[in-house]
Specification:
2 domains, six-stranded mixed sheet, single chain, 15 helices, binds nicotinamide-adenine-dinucleotide, seven-stranded mixed sheet, alpha/beta, Aldehyde Dehydrogenase, Chain A, domain 1, about 450 residues, 18 strands, Aldehyde Dehydrogenase, Chain A, domain 2, about 45% helix
C-alpha cells in the first residue's frame, strides 16, 4: 500500500473513536505483549546476527524492558487516562474545570539500529496507551531484527491501526513527506534536523531523542573499584553503541593509575582477556561504522585494548590516553567501544569544558563528596544521568528519559510516554443558570470596579 494511502486509512480509523476506549487499548497492549513473547527467540537470534548481542543481554536491555513497559501501561492505564479536576476561579462561577488527556491522532515513530527492539516498541507502547494510531519505521541497518519487528507488528495489528514500514533512506524520506499529528524520532542529529524541517512544514509537534558526547567524571573521592566496574559496563555494553554510554572520561589526575588498573580488571571480568571470543561482547553494526571507528583509532595513544578484527567487525574494549580537547576523537559522538581518558586537577576546568560544548544526553559523576555532586549538577546542562553509576537511569520507568538542547527534546518511559503521546486539553464546563454581566460591554464604572476586585 502507498504510504499516503496508509496514513489516510489510519486517519479514517482514528476518527471512528475506537482507540479512545480503554478496553481497546488494553487489548492491543496485551496482543503486542503476547506476540513479542512468542517471537522472543527470533528476536534474540536476530539481535545476535545484527549486533552480536547475547541472549541474556538482549533480554536485559531490549525484550525485558519492552515487556516491562507494557506491564506498566496495563497497570496504570486507567489512572493515566483519567481527567484531572482543577480549581476554578470565582470570576468563572458557576463552572468546573478539568484537564483531559486526548490522543494526537496518527503518529510516526522512527527508530535506530542500536537497540532496535526497545527503541521501536517503547515509543509504540506509549502511542498505543495514549490512544493513537501509529506508523513505525525501524532502521534499515538492523536488518534481521527489523524483519522480526515487522512480523510482530503485522501479526498483532491491522495496518489501518498500527503499521510497520521498512526500507532505506528513500522510504524514510517518503514517510517524512506525509502529514502526521505527532512525530517521535530516535537517532542521530543529522536526520533529527531533517525530521524537524519536515515537521515544521505541517507544524507537527515532535520528540527528538538524539545522542551526543556524554561525559563521565571520576573524582579523587570516588570508590574506584565500583567506578571502574560500572563505567566498563556502561561503555562496552552493546560494544559502545549506546546513546547514553559514557563518551569520554575525565579522571582526577591523582587516581588515574589506580583507576586504569581496576578498569582493565573490570574489562577482563566482563569479557575475559579475549573479548573477541566472549559471547557477551558485541560487534559493530556494519562496515561503515567499523571503518569510521577504526579511523578514530589511528595515531592514538592506546592505554588498553586497541585491537580490531575486520572479519567479525569487532573492536576490543579500548581506552585512549594523552587526549586533549583538540584530539579528533573529541569532535563527534564516538558510538563505539573507545574511551578517551582525560585528566584534571580542578573540577571547574571539567565543568567549563562540558559547558563549552553542546548539552549532552547523559552525564555521570563518581564521587563521595556531596559538595562536588551539587556543584556539577548545578553547573551543567544535560538530559539525565547517574551519580556513582552509568546508564541505569534509562531503565527506570519512574524516570522520564530524554535530552536537552542538541541531545534532543521531549522525554518518555512509563508515565512520561503516555504524556508525550497525549495532548492535555483544558476544559471549562460552565453552567447556564447564571450569566454574570460583568464581562459583557458596555463596561460601566461599577463593572470596572468589580473587574478590578477579581483581576489584580
Ligand atoms: P539510523 O541511521 O538507523 O537512523 C534512524 C532513522 O532515521 C532510521 O529509521 C532511518 O531509516 C532514518 N534515516 C536515516 N537517514 C535518513 C535520511 N537521510 N532521511 C530521512 N530518514 C533517514 O540511526 P543513527 O542515526 O545512526 O542512530 C545513531 C544515533 O542515534 C546516535 O547519535 C545515538 O546517540 C542516537 N540514539 C539516541 C537514542 C536516544 O534515546 N536518545 C537512542 C539510540 C540512539
Amino acid at each position: 500500500m502507498e504510504i499516503s494511502n496508509l496514513i489516510k486509512m489510519q486517519r479514517m480509523f482514528y476518527f471512528t473513536n475506537e482507540t479512545l476506549d480503554i478496553s481497546f487499548r488494553r487489548k492491543q497492549l496485551k496482543k503486542l505483549k503476547e506476540t513479542i513473547k512468542f517471537y522472543e527467540d527470533d528476536l534474540k537470534e536476530a539481535l545476535l546476527l545484527d549486533l552480536g548481542k547475547s541472549g541474556a543481554e538482549s533480554y536485559l536491555t531490549e525484550i525485558g524492558i519492552t515487556l516491562k513497559e507494557i506491564s506498566f501501561m496495563e497497570k496504570h492505564l486507567k489512572k493515566l487516562m483519567k481527567n484531572r479536576r482543577v480549581g476554578t476561579s470565582i470570576k468563572d462561577f458557576p463552572a468546573k474545570s478539568y484537564i483531559s488527556p486526548h490522543p494526537y491522532g496518527v503518529v510516526l515513530v522512527m527508530s535506530p539500529w542500536n537497540y532496535p527492539v526497545m527503541l521501536s516498541f517503547c515509543p509504540l507502547i506509549g502511542a498505543i496507551a495514549a490512544g493513537n494510531t501509529c506508523v513505525l519505521k525501524p532502521s534499515e541497518y538492523s536488518i534481521y531484527t527489523t524483519k522480526v519487528i515487522d512480523k510482530i507488528i503485522k501479526e498483532s495489528f491491522d495496518s489501518n491501526y498500527v503499521a510497520c514500514v521498512t526500507g532505506g533512506i528513500s522510504v524514510s524520506q517518503e514517510i517524512l513527506n506525509q502529514k502526521y499529528d505527532y512525530i517521535f524520532y530516535t537517532g542521530g542529529k543529522v536526520v533529527g534536523r531533517i525530521v524537524m524541517e519536515k515537521a515544521a512544514k505541517h507544524l507537527t509537534a515532535i520528540s527528538l531523542e538524539l545522542g551526543g558526547k556524554s561525559p563521565c567524571i571520576v573524582d579523587e573521592t570516588a570508590n574506584i573499584k565500583i567506578a571502574a566496574k560500572r563505567i566498563a559496563f556502561g561503555k562496552y555494553l552493546n560494544a559502545g553503541q549506546t546513546c547514553v554510554a559514557p563518551d569520554y572520561l575525565y579522571i582526577h589526575e591523582s587516581i588515574k593509575d589506580e583507576f586504569l588498573e581496576q578498569f582493565e580488571l573490570a574489562i577482563n571480568e566482563l569479557f575475559t582477556s579475549k573479548p573477541f571470543e566472549s559471547e557477551n561482547y558485541g560487534k559493530i553494526i556494519n562496515q561503515r561504522h567499523f571503518d569510521r571507528l577504526s579511523e578514530l583509532l589511528k595515531d592514538q595513544f592506546v592505554l588498553i585494548g586497541g585491537t580490531i578484527d575486520s572479519k567479525s567487525l569487532k573492536i576490543s574494549p579500548t581506552v585512549l590516553g594523552e587526549i586533549t580537547a583538540t584530539n579528533k576523537i573529541m569532535e563527534e559522538e564516538i558510538f563505539g567501544p573507545i574511551l578517551p581518558l582525560l585528566t584534571y586537577s580542578n573540577i571547574d576546568d571539567v565543568i567549563n569544558y562540558i559547558n563549552q560544548n553542546p548539552s549532552p544526553l547523559a552525564l555521570y559523576l563518581f564521587t563521595s563528596k556531596k559538595q562536588i555532586e551539587n556543584k556539577v549538577l548545578k553547573s551543567c546542562n544535560f538530559g539525565g544521568g547517574c551519580i556513582n553509576d552509568t546508564v541505569m537511569h534509562v531503565a527506570s520507568e519512574t524516570l522520564p528519559f530524554g535530552g536537552v538542547g542538541e541531545s534532543g527534546m521531549g522525554n518518555y518511559h512509563g508515565r512520561a510516554s503516555f504524556e508525550t503521546f497525549s495532548h492535555y486539553r483544558s476544559i471549562m464546563r460552565k453552567e447556564t443558570w447564571l450569566d454574570l454581566p460583568i464581562r459583557y460591554a458596555p463596561y460601566t464604572k461599577i463593572k470596572n470596579k468589580i473587574v478590578k476586585l477579581f483581576l489584580r
